[in-house]
Design goal:
By secondary structure, the chain is mainly alpha-helical. It has one domain (about 5-225). It has helices at about 5-30, 40-50, 80-85, 90-105, 110-140, 145-180, 185-225, and strands at about 60-65, 70, 75-80. Strands 1-3-2 form a three-stranded mixed β-sheet. The radius of gyration is 20 Å and the shape is elongated. The relative contact order is 0.17.
Length: about 230
C-alpha cells in the first residue's frame, strides 16, 4: 500500500471533516447572535411544532449530555442542549425544528429512520471492538483481524449511508414547517435556518466519506497482502 493511496483515502476525508466542523461551528456562532422576531425559544418552537403535528407523547428535555441535540425514538424524548433549549436565536429554532423532524419521521414510520434504529446495536458493537481489531491486525499482521475490521467498517458505512436521508429529510421538514408556522418570517431568518441546517448536513456527509475511505483502505491492504 503506497503513501499516496493512504493520504487520499484517509487524509482527504479528515480534511473534509475538519472543514465541515469549522463550517457548522462558524455558522452556528453567526446565527446564535440573531434573535428571531417571534421570540420563541428552541424548546417553545419544538413544542409548537410537535403540537401542530399531532404529536403529544414526546417529552422535550434540556440536556448537557455529550450526545447533544437528538431525538430518541425508543423512549419518545427530544433532547436539546441548554443553548438550543433556552435560546431564541435563528440557530436555536433551526436545530430544535430539525430534531422535531425526526419525531415527525417516527410518527410516520419513516423507513430509513426505522432501519437506522435497527442497526444501532450492530453499529455500537462494531465501534467498540474496531480499535482493538485494527491495532491487532496491523501489529501482528493477522489477516483475519483485518477482515473483521473490514466487516466492522462495512456496518459503520451502512449506518452512515442510511443516516444521510434521515438527516436531510429532517432538515427539509424543519425548513418547511418553520416557515409554514411563521416561527421564522423575515428573509434573513429563513436564510439563516437554511444556512445552519445545510452546514450541519456536511458533517454527516464527512462522516460517511471518512468511513468509506477507511473501508476502501482496509480492502486494499488485504488485497496487497495476498
Amino acid at each position: 500500500m503506497n503513501m499516496s493511496a493512504y493520504l487520499f483515502l484517509i487524509g482527504i476525508p479528515l480534511i473534509l471533516g475538519l472543514w465541515a466542523q469549522f463550517r457548522v461551528s462558524s455558522t452556528l456562532k453567526r446565527y446564535e447572535k440573531i434573535t428571531i422576531s417571534s421570540r420563541l425559544t428552541g424548546a417553545e418552537a419544538a413544542q409548537q411544532i410537535l403540537s401542530a403535528s399531532g404529536i403529544h407523547d414526546v417529552k422535550i428535555m434540556e440536556t448537557d449530555s455529550m450526545m447533544g441535540d437528538h431525538y430518541n425514538p425508543t423512549d419518545k424524548t427530544l433532547h436539546l442542549s441548554s443553548a438550543i433549549f433556552s435560546g431564541n436565536s435563528i440557530a436555536a429554532v433551526g436545530v430544535a425544528a430539525h430534531e422535531c423532524g425526526h419525531a415527525l419521521q417516527d410518527k410516520e414510520s419513516y423507513a430509513p429512520l426505522k432501519l437506522r434504529l435497527g442497526l444501532v446495536p450492530a453499529t455500537q458493537f462494531s465501534s467498540q471492538i474496531l480499535p482493538f481489531v485494527i491495532l491487532g491486525g496491523f501489529l501482528f499482521h493477522m489477516a483475519h483481524l483485518i477482515t473483521l475490521g473490514i466487516a466492522c467498517y462495512a456496518v459503520l458505512m451502512l449506518f452512515q449511508l442510511i443516516t444521510l436521508p434521515v438527516e436531510f429529510d429532517a432538515s427539509s421538514r424543519a425548513k418547511v414547517i418553520l416557515k409554514k408556522m411563521g416561527i421564522v418570517q423575515s428573509p434573513l431568518e429563513i436564510t439563516g435556518v437554511h444556512d445552519v441546517l445545510n452546514a450541519a448536513a456536511w458533517t454527516y456527509v464527512a462522516a460517511f466519506v471518512a468511513v468509506l475511505g477507511n473501508l476502501i483502505y482496509l480492502l486494499l491492504v488485504r488485497r496487497s497482502e495476498r
